[in-house]
Sequence to fold (194 residues):
Amino acid sequence: MIVRDFQRVIGVEARAQMIQACGRLPNELIACIGGGSNSIGLFHPFLEDASVEMTGVEAGGTGILPGQHAARFAGGRPGVLQGTYTYLLQDEQGQIQNTHSISAGLDYPAIGPEHAHLHDIGRVRYTHVSDAEALDAAFSLSRLEGIIPALESAHAIAHAIQKAPTLPQDHIILVGLSGRGDKDVEAQYVEMPS
Ligand SMILES: Cc1ncc(COP(=O)(O)O)c(C=O)c1O
Fold:
């Protein structure tokens, strides 16, 4: 709750700016999820707004197979890690599994317990995108908008890029850009298509 309450400034500010800029609430929020702090901060001030859909995007890595991703909802089940009961990537005996993501910040076997609750009550939808899709989205945002996103944030952008063409033109998606990509430029450079 301490993390959520501090991070909440993201959602409070985004909500106010959206109303100022667009005159209404967004139809949907999209944010990436590692431990869950930037996304719970964005989502929380909108939770009572029933019209606002929310999607959390986890790291699909190189596939939803043990050790190849960090998508706790797609590949995990409830358990306890670091004193918290939540969704975990674990083996049959409850031992924590290795995780993988191109983005270090999403590479974590558990998820903040408030997300587990929001998942179970169906208030927030959770999905995942792969390393390759996140990289592609990072290149697209850099080229098209001149904004180099963190590879974590690029997961949210990838999902928005996939979904936007299926939606009406007046549908407003608010994407949480959780960090800048200066720290990831080297990793992006190595993977850059020639
Ligand atoms: C830029 C950035 N975005 C997102 C995350 C994921 O963490 P959380 O889900 O707790 O916001 C991290 C974690 O290090 C990060 O560095």
User: Anything to note?
Assistant: Residues 131-145 form the longest helix (15 residues). Residues 76 and 117 are 15 Å apart (CA to CA). Strands lie at 28-32, 53-61, 77-81, 84-88, 125-130, 173-175.
